[in-house]
Amino acid sequence: MKQLDDYPKVMQVLSTKINNKLKKNPYINKVKTSKKWPSQIIITIEENKPLFYYVPNSKTVLTDKTEVNDNFVVPTLINYVPNKIYSEFVNEMNNADYTIVKRMSEIKYDPNDVDDERFIITMNDGNYVYLTLNKFYKINHYLEIIKEFNNKKGILYLDSGEYFKVFE
After folding, report:
1. Do strands 76-77 and 118-123 pair parallel, antiparallel, or not at all (unpaired)?
2. What backbone phi and psi angles, to 5 degrees, belong to 7?
């Protein structure tokens, strides 16, 4: 039988084991375990959320850039993106408000003569948004911007000019 003096050591070992086991889960980005006397372990988890499904790899990409085979209700990146741009795209998606990410349906890498870092996003509400990587943060204001147009459907150009073209 263990002595009461051994109890803190046992709790520390248990806490470490739990921490190490949870870190192996790809959907957990960070985990912290702490002891609370006399018999509780507090577990704090930061999720590794699914960001989008990348069609060229047939994988779901998580916030830490890990790719998994599981399917989620997330936006679909439908075409190939060059590695340098792809890496920055994942970073920008990570910085986007997750409530806005969940409103995205489809993403297409859509470079033009002016900008090779341009994307078009189909939103669940039927609108389209053009964005470039250096202006991707503007997607966080999508709901505020779209309210100004009284539920009309169209294309929001946040890549240049920042205007909304209503569908005829």
Report:
1. unpaired
2. -55, -45
- Burial string for 64-95 (b: 16+ CB within 10 Å, else e) reads eeeeeeeeeebbebeeebeeebbeebbebbbe
* This model's pTM is above 0.70: yes
The DSSP annotation for 74-108 comes to: --EE-S---HHHHHHHHHHHHHS-HHHHTTEEEEE
pLDDT one-digit tens code per residue, 16-50:
888 888 888 999 988 888 777 667 778 899 999 99
Closest CA to 68 of 46, 50, 92: 50
One-letter amino acid for residue 111 of the chain: P
> Is the CB of residue 46 less than 8 Å from the CB of residue 39?
no
Go through the chain and tell me how many residues it has: 168
